[in-house]
Design goal:
By secondary structure, the protein is α/β, with parallel strands linked by helices. The protein has seven helices and four strands. Bound molecules: zinc ion (2 copies).
Length: 174
């Protein structure tokens, strides 16, 4: 846990209520993202990449947490700028719980999503470590703040693609 998390007690990033990274009231008001294809962004059952959108043979699933508007994103950016990542971890674990991903995570190799931004890549690395997979080959999970560049994602998947991988799961907060 970053040092700053100890110095400052958690406080809701949106309404400043003490004791929460983001309080349930505020979180309820952020629209949840519907399962969608990570390539074309259109709705897709279970977040499976559409056949016509697919760029790899391995099934690629995407789970995205929320559709954040600028107001929320600004508050999160502030935290990221200060290297306070606890709210990001909190959001990630909300997704893990809601989507019942615990078992899948325990059997997967976890990678941080590449990013050209050092700040974002550092955050993604932190999120990947937080998930603490078991380095088993059953599954492959890529985790990150958000999918910014499909080209970078394709490059990364190309670099890790192995015949033994059954599916690749992409987890992003927003
Ligand atoms: Zn709040
Ligand atoms: Zn699609």
């Amino acid at each position: 846990m970053p040092l700053l998390d100890y110095i400052f007690p958690p406080q809701c990033a949106i309404c400043s209520r003490v004791g929460y990274e983001i309080c349930d009231y505020c979180l309820l008001h952020i629209p949840k993202a519907l399962p969608s294809c990570c390539v074309c962004k259109r709705i897709s059952t279970y977040g499976v990449t559409h056949k016509e959108c697919s760029f790899i043979d391995t099934p690629l699933l995407s789970i995205k947490g929320w559709n954040m508007d600028d107001r929320y994103l600004r508050e999160l950016e502030k935290k990221k700028g200060l290297n306070i990542y606890s709210i990001y971890r909190y959001l990630l674990f909300k997704i893990v719980k809601c989507s019942k991903l615990e078992e899948k995570i325990s059997k997967s190799v976890i990678y941080p999503m590449y990013s050209e931004s050092k700040d974002i890549f550092n955050l993604n690395k932190y999120l990947a470590v937080s998930l603490n997979g078991q380095r088993k080959k059953d599954g492959t999970i890529l985790v990150g703040e958000s999918l910014i560049s499909l080209d970078i994602l394709k490059e990364q998947i190309e670099s890790i693609k192995k015949d033994s991988i059954k599916e690749i799961l992409l987890i992003t907060l927003y």
